[in-house]
């Protein structure tokens, strides 16, 4: 596994499924409109990714050992800060459930621990600073919808296609098999701006231009959130066995050469800034967004209205009906959002089966940096 910072450039959208909801523009596999220019020359649905992988010393017997108690204490403090995952990884019980019911892993379904930790870094300068007002959990129907995410000035927080988790523990799946891979997953709030008011009114708006990443924030009338969306990363360790070849690099005259780097830069620096397809990461990678798993009591789709000055109208809000089993079959589907008698039992993130909404189906995105060679 390569350590350090590297890039996954110009990924191909292998799956773009938005049939789980109406209007289908509520789910998009393209970057928000504001982020698409920085992603050029790739299309909005071909996002770049930047990853940092660290190796944690002392994880195994053969790892580097510290030589004194004082150094051990200092190293422990530094390690705690460096390898503290945010958000926390899902429970092993849930990882076992989804590993078996959705991801097709072999025993152990939750994979094996490794000394590697991964952070997803923004490919551009990020301004994702937002807050959400806290409140008592679910005291009545009106407050089932979480408070809106806003910037410090009260305007709507930026739309988010994929998260930037840090220090996620990487696990090894299917050891020794052809489809052996490293990976991790966690959950985040996927969000999108729409110029159409259909999610709030139910009336079709034929004038809205909400395809390919939604609307710009300036044109938005609605901000919608997909709470507890799963973000899954799989790194294939035996590409020849599974027929996955990295996307070909463009010719010297191709427009797909994104970011040039100075020849005087160090190799490590270049690998962190090279967004010429396929990027500097040397293994085939599959990155997926889907609606499997998650904490059932927090998992929902909801929309808030927006004013012309980009502020949220907190009184204009509505749940959206999501078909998580669209074009598939769910295993242990989560109870409905209005099943109030079950909220207490849903306070943890696992069920008797270990998790919810396994199986197949629902809205999804899948990006890859490889082409099939079989």
Automatic annotation (TrEMBL):
Organism of origin: Aspergillus ochraceoroseus
Protein name per the record: Uncharacterized protein
Chain intervals for the UniProt region annotation (Disordered): 244-275
Composition bias type Low complexity, residue spans: 251-273
């Amino acid at each position: 596994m390569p350590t350090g910072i590297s890039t996954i450039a110009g990924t191909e959208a292998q799956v773009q499924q938005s049939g789980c909801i109406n209007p289908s523009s509520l789910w998009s596999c393209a970057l928000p409109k504001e982020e698409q220019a920085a992603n050029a020359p790739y299309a909005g649905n071909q996002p770049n990714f930047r990853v940092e992988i660290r190796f944690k010393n002392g994880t195994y017997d053969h790892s580097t050992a510290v030589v004194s108690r004082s150094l051990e204490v200092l190293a422990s403090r530094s390690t705690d800060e460096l390898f503290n995952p945010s958000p926390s990884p899902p429970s092993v019980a849930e990882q076992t459930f989804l590993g078996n019911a959705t991801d097709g892993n072999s025993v152990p379904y939750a994979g094996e621990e490794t000394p590697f930790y991964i952070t997803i870094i923004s490919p551009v300068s990020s301004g994702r600073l937002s807050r959400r007002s806290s409140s008592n959990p679910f005291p009545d129907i009106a407050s089932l919808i979480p408070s809106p995410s806003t910037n410090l000035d009260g305007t709507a927080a930026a739309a988010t296609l994929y998260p930037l988790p840090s220090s996620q523990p990487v696990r090894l799946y299917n050891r020794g098999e052809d489809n052996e891979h490293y990976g991790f997953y966690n959950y985040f709030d996927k969000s999108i701006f729409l110029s159409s008011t259909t999610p709030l009114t139910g009336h079709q708006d034929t004038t809205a231009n909400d395809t390919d990443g939604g609307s710009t924030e300036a044109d938005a009338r609605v901000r919608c959130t997909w709470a507890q969306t799963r973000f899954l990363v799989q790194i294939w360790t035996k590409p020849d066995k599974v027929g996955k070849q990295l996307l070909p690099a463009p010719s010297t005259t191709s427009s797909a050469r994104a970011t040039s780097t100075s020849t005087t830069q160090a190799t490590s620096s270049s690998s962190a800034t090279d967004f010429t397809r396929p990027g500097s990461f040397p293994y085939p990678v599959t990155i997926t967004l889907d609606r499997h798993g998650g904490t059932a009591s927090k998992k929902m789709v909801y929309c808030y209205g927006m004013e012309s000055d980009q502020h949220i109208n907190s009184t204009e809000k509505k749940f959206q009906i999501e078909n998580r089993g669209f074009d598939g079959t769910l295993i242990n589907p989560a109870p409905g959002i209005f099943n109030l008698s079950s909220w207490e039992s849903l306070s943890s993130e696992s069920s008797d089966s270990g998790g919810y909404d396994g199986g197949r189906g629902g809205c999804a995105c899948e990006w890859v940096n490889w082409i099939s060679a079989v």
